[in-house]
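Question (not urgent): is this output format expected?
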Amino acid sequence: MGKWRYGVILDAGSSGTRVHIYRWLNSDTARKSAGEAQLHKLPDIETDKKWTKKIHPGISTFGDHPHDVGPEHLDKLLSHALKYVPLDEVPNTPLFLLATAGMRILPPVQRKSVLKEVCEFARKTTKFQLPDCDLHVQVIPGETEGLYGWIAANYLLGGFDDPEGHQHGKGHHTYGFLDMGGASAQIAFAPNATEAEKHANDLTLLRLRSIDGEPLEYKVFVTTWLGFGVNQARERYVKALLASSPGAKEYPDPCLPAGATLTVSDDGRVMEDKKASSYPLIGTGIFSECLHQTYPLLEKEKECLDSPCLINGQHTPAIDFDVNHFVGVSEYYHTTHEIFEMAHKDDGGYDFETYQKAVNDFCGKRWKDIEDAIDDKKWGKKVDEETALEVCFKSSWLINVLHEGIGVPRVGIEDLDSAHNVTKAKVGHGKKKDFLNPFQAVNKINEVELSWTLGKMILYASSEVPAPSTEALAVGFGSNEPGIPADFQYPGGAYNPYIGSDDWHNGLFSENPRRIPGFLIFVLIVFVIGYTMCGHERRKAARHKIARMFGAGSRHTSLRRRRGFAGKLFGLRSTPSYDRILEEGEASNDFELASYSDASDNDHSDSSDGSRIGRTSGWATPQIKAGMAEPATPAAYLESGRDVMAQGVGLGLEPPGGFSNPIERGGLMARTDSRERIAGGRFSRASSPRRKSPMSKLDE
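Got this back:
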């Protein structure tokens, strides 16, 4: 096992799949190099921008043709991962594909087929660790996605490793997490002590483990709001707009800039072409009216069966914003920063008054003026017409969710208690950053992307730390109950080093497969020299001794075993003493080289079953494919033997007296043939009917 441990996660979202690669020190190395303070921290996870890659569309689009998900989708992502994970660590690297919103809405039969193809393709084309497909390749619920995000946020902000430096008051030192995508939104936070006791049954028990093996336990509330992502909220908004004026020729839309037009279908989706069932939306650019019309989408009027509730009648413990400070990712960040970045200050975070003013000014502009600004790259290269058309609705939806739904105080307008503005948190490895407000939208912390995939890998790396005793409870999460509850979810199991049948090959030839021919030639030279120098009598005595050791007289041997090692090398079928040894015993088995076949060699090639991804290395080791030699044939061994013997003669290793002329050499062969004929059939030949062994081994 090397110094570093690696992990690969494929985030399979609705619009595309992104591969993330992480690494951390193995437990033994981390403990040896850690100081006293570091021993009490979680494993240090590293990543790099170039280690990520995203492709479109998502794997949910392969529901009707799942067999294509491997070669047309996963191939690119796995190839990318194999470029950065070291070759010798690939078999020790866990691979996860965790799908979210897009796969959740796929029919169960199609979802199962796609996931099955994903696992089979990864197993067939790579050697990444995939011990349990159900655990490593799955669709995760929104609650799990939110919990992983909460872990990642607190890890990057320092809430786990430095509780004293992140005290928010009332013994609280963690941060809340908000995520919003196209289809759903999540919230995760640790309630204050009073709410945690009151709603204990609604909390998730999370258990991590620091480098020294000590457990870290947290009780977190997590919930997801399906249908409350920006895209599905927009579709619900358009449906309500069409229903308000049935039969109208056009529909004024305050959530579009003035003068902008869109064509939509009756299900609320934007259409590129006008059709019989299409409806034109005409932008008015009145943002205050947009806020008013998007408020009902929160569905706060739904009955709350378990008080308190926030959105859609879903129960949520009361949030104490004196101690609960939230970070928001995904749409929370993009909608507040892509166009309105100037509405935020690095030291002050989200300011509601400044942000709402910036949105109101933008949405009140004429669409023609906005188009000209886009052409001039006023808001950067990422802002196009589609972004500009959507941002007014997205901003109004975000504001309503944050302040009317979740209840985040409006910084800049509402009078806040001093406790809301005094929190100063250390971020990452000692770097300071102020989180003074109840909410702040972020994308990266210390140049590391805040992604739920990081939280998953933190949990996995933590589970690899050895427990201090056999009584220690496992790392993972489940219901807030003592011990290991029935629904407890393990992060992926303990680290198990890969042990393959071809370890001998990896050890000798993994760095340079061209060493194989040279190694075989060296063995041949050593064998020939030793065989020649030991003398005729010693060779004869050794053959008899070996025959007695392995039981002379056995005739039920395979063709491969009867031929023996010397026969394979030099083809000396006509030597009587050689045939007698093989008929009376199986001494040749002791001298035979280990088999070298195409099957074992393929485990180390760059391609397998038509894929360009190698089972071991893929892009990381093109030299293996180019340099691997095919197994030598007996004829090849024969030629090698002759060359070696010729070299031996030049070195003075010929028999006493040498071979003075061709006649003597011919006489030697004649005497050998005569001895075999005199034996009267005692010695079995390759064509003899006395050879009863089947040919199955050779056929194989």
